[in-house]
């Protein structure tokens, strides 16, 4: 039963749930027109002018009952188009009719015939001008064979479906200073060098000029909403709705140009700023940071004055949650399935510590959890930061919320992440103020261009495939392509150490190529698609006169995520035990069985599955192998140099373990070709036999401190074992124990496989069922079947 705090919030939710997203070509038309008008100008100026034209001319909406306003497109739940990156897949789907055949699991969109023609009308202009064209031109010829190895993704040959994403804006600056002050700062720097621009100051001047244009755009955007609200108020006959329109107008006339004065203004400024970032670029995982920290001071001020109540503030938060849920962007079918349910990854963080080391929990923290629980929406994804001072009330509220709304919030360990941030060069105050980006990736608040998803198109490395290549002389058995270095055949490895050495060479070879591709990708992208909206606010950019893409932020990162941890651990353990230690099989027999996809070798396969040690069962034999395998990947990745900074190794799949598994041949753990890989740092689906404590012991043995880009541990509990007060205490103790052992992150679903099967059969009866997939949550019935099946295969644990 969904029980929003107010009838208004209930109506907002119903409209959202009842509306199928719709494609809108207006942004594509306006962006194309802007580029034609600014041809030949510096790209940083063109991008700023593009946004200004867009917010000056795009259709605005204010829906009935809305408290927080702002839309991405002219339709309700409208999906804007970004032709400057690449829409080839979309144009092809329009022409062959497959776009109209998309189902919910592939993120279905409505589209009118007029919109189709409008979208197709800009296609020719963008040929040769797209980010995808620039990236393709930057890639070495060898990339084709590298992609054929099945280790890296990148959606080759079209390696662009958006811009660089996985970052978070500086919301505190927008709320506390406003765009007027940001503009004045940039203008003052321009005035100081007017008529005497030397050396690098020519580039700085153009950047500062772009910042002033962005600030003007922010004012225009908000003031247009104010004018629309006043227009609606004049026509409105209902006194309550008229007053609401007038309130909206007053708020939008003030923020985000000026510092917010009230909690509502702070939330509205937050949303305007987030929309400006989203309208500018098509990056994934554009996160929203520590919402309870940057909005709370104004709530506290009003609460003390008696000008706002808890319920009034909560209604504002619930209205904001619906606005976040409404946003959607177009992806290709493969991407849509891997990040399903129209998920946007606008991650928020609650709790944790203040910059001076006190507990950061406040009333807005609880509003965030309550809003998610009341509305049962999967956006925004959310983490609760845990430390020694986390109050029992926050534990209780977080656990009750995640039990009801699958995997929201998840839990992050301050005792691991703060030292990681210090190791990256953050001050102790900055480290305590960390946030989470996209899925599980730590970043700095308002001072960090993290790019934790790499290019945003394919930030994953298939570690089990590295083991397969190590056993097959670098040849992908699925394609027959010599994709990795020739490290020999398993049948010739007389020692287990020889196999380990071959694996290490394969991992390092593909990490090197990942770094190569990302660095060339970023150089191509920053040249034609700088990020002036984000750069206007991130600490360090205006001061240095440099866009975030050019290293202007105070701190920088770029990430990579390893996939299939349990598969490599179990594969190494099977080989070591059954071939080298016990000599049950010869090397020739084992390799032949794997290369035959285990066909006609079912007894061998069952022996591997049932008798070789399995990661996730508190077995030192396999857990130490997992630790070694991952240290090879994390330590090497963390040593590699990016364009702006070092790379950061992570251990999470989003849901890429499904798609990567579909393209991965049989692996030495007994897995057959095409089946999903294991997710996150979790055990392989269904092979954890000794309960949750054993899973936590196994996963805590890997060096999570070296995973500077985050880890992800998924668990699924049977609801019967977590009922009542005793259930809350069980979950709290499990998380606390795991974090005390060095665990970094944990998330869980409290649902049975039987319930998920019933939802597959009768989706209309389970349309509100939210499930944690990997780095995001979604409505279960909106996921494609292979992903649903993968969730069902996870073990139903008894706490």
From TrEMBL:
The residues forming a coiled coil are none
User: Where is each Glycine radical domain found?
Assistant: 679-799
Provide the PFL domain boundaries.
Answer: 7-672
Which residues get modified to Glycine radical? 775
Q: What is its EC number?
A: 4.2.1.172
Domain of life the protein comes from: Bacteria
Q: Name one Pfam family in it.
A: Gly_radical
Which of UniProt's keywords are assigned here?
Lyase, Organic radical
Question: What InterPro entries does the database record attribute to this sequence?
Answer: Gly_radical (IPR001150), GRE (IPR051215), PFL_dom (IPR004184)
- Gene Ontology molecular function terms on file: lyase activity
Q: What class of enzyme is it?
A: lyase
What Gene3D superfamilies has UniProt attached to this entry?
Answer: 3.20.70.20
Give the protein name, as stated in the record: Trans-4-hydroxy-L-proline dehydratase
Organism (species) = Sporomusa acidovorans (strain ATCC 49682 / DSM 3132 / Mol)
The gene that this protein is the product of is pflD_2
């Amino acid at each position: 039963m969904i029980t929003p705090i107010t009838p208004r919030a209930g109506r907002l939710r119903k409209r959202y749930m009842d509306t199928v997203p719709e494609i809108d070509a207006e942004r594509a038309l306006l962006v194309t027109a802007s580029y034609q008008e600014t041809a030949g100008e510096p790209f940083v100026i063109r991008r700023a002018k593009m946004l200004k034209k867009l917010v000056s001319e795009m259709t605005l909406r204010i829906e009935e009952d809305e408290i927080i306003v702002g839309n991405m497109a002219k339709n309700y739940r409208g999906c804007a188009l970004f032709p400057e990156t690449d829409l080839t897949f979309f144009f092809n789907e329009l022409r062959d009719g497959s776009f109209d055949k998309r189902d919910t699991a592939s993120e279905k969109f409505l589209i009118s015939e007029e919109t189709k023609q409008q979208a197709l009308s800009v296609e020719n202009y963008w040929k040769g001008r797209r980010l995808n064209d620039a990236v393709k031109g930057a890639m070495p010829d060898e990339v084709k064979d590298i992609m054929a190895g099945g280790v890296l993704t990148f959606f080759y040959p079209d390696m662009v479906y958006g811009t660089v994403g996985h970052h978070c804006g500086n919301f505190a600056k927008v709320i506390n200073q406003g765009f007027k002050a940001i503009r004045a700062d940039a203008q003052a720097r321009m005035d100081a060098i007017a008529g005497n621009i030397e050396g690098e100051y020519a580039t700085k001047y153009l950047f500062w000029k772009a910042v002033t244009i962005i600030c003007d755009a922010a004012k225009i955007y908000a003031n247009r909403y104010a004018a629309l609200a006043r227009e609606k108020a004049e026509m409105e006959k209902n006194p309550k709705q008229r007053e609401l329109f007038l309130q909206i107008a007053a708020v939008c006339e003030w923020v985000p140009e000026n510092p917010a004065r009230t909690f509502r203004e702070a939330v509205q400024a937050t949303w305007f700023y987030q929309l400006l970032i989203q309208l500018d670029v098509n990056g994934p995982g554009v996160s929203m940071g520590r919402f309870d920290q940057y909005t709370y001071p104004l709530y506290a001020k009003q609460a003390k004055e008696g000008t706002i109540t808890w319920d009034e503030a909560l209604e504002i938060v619930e209205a904001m949650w619906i606005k976040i849920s409404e946003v959607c962007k177009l992806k290709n079918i493969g991407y849509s399935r891997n990040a399903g349910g129209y998920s946007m990854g606008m991650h928020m963080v609650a709790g944790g510590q203040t910059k001076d080391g006190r507990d950061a929990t406040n009333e807005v923290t609880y509003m965030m959890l309550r809003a998610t629980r009341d509305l049962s929406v999967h956006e925004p994804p959310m983490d609760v930061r845990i430390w020694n001072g986390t109050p029992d009330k926050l534990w209780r509220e977080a656990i009750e919320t995640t039990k009801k709304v699958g995997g929201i919030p998840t839990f992050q360990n301050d005792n691991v992440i703060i030292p990681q941030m210090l190791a990256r060069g953050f001050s102790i105050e900055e480290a305590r103020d960390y946030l989470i980006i996209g899925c599980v990736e730590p970043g700095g608040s308002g001072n960090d261009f993290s790019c934790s998803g790499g290019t945003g198109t394919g930030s994953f490395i298939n570690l089990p495939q590295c083991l397969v290549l190590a056993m097959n002389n670098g040849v992908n058995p699925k394609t027959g392509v010599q994709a990795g270095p020739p490290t020999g055949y398993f049948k010739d490895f007389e020692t287990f150490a020889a196999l380990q050495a071959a694996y290490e060479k394969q991992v390092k070879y593909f990490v090197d190529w990942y770094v190569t591709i990302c660095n060339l990708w970023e150089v191509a992208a920053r040249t034609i698609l700088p990020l002036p909206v984000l750069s206007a606010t991130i600490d360090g950019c205006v001061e240095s006169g440099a866009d975030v893409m050019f290293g202007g932020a105070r701190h920088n990162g770029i990430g990579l995520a390893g996939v299939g941890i349990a598969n490599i651990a179990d594969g190494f353990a099977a080989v070591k035990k059954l071939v080298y230690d016990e000599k049950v099989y010869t090397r020739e027999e084992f390799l032949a069985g794997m290369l035959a996809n285990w066909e006609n070798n079912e007894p061998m396969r069952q022996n591997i599955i049932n008798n070789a040690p399995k990661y996730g069962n508190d077995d030192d034999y396999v857990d130490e192998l997992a630790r070694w395998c991952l240290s090879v990947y994390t330590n090497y990745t963390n040593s590699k140099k990016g364009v702006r900074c070092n790379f950061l190794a992570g251990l999470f799949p989003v849901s890429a373990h499904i798609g990567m598994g579909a393209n991965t041949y049989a692996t030495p753990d007994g897995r057959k070709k095409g089946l999903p890989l294991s997710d996150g740092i979790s055990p392989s689906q269904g092979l954890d036999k000794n309960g949750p404590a054993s899973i936590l012991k196994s996963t805590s043995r890997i060096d999570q401190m070296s995973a500077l880009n985050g880890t992800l541990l998924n668990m699924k509990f049977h609801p019967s074992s977590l009922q009542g007060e005793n259930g809350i205490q069980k979950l709290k103790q499990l998380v606390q124990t795991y974090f005390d052992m060095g665990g970094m992150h944990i998330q869980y679903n409290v649902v049975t496989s039987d319930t998920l099967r019933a939802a597959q059969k009768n989706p209309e009866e389970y349309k509100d069922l939210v499930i944690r997939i990997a780095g995001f949550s979604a409505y279960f019935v909106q996921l494609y079947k292979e992903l649903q099946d993968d969730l069902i295969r996870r073990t139903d644990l008894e706490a």
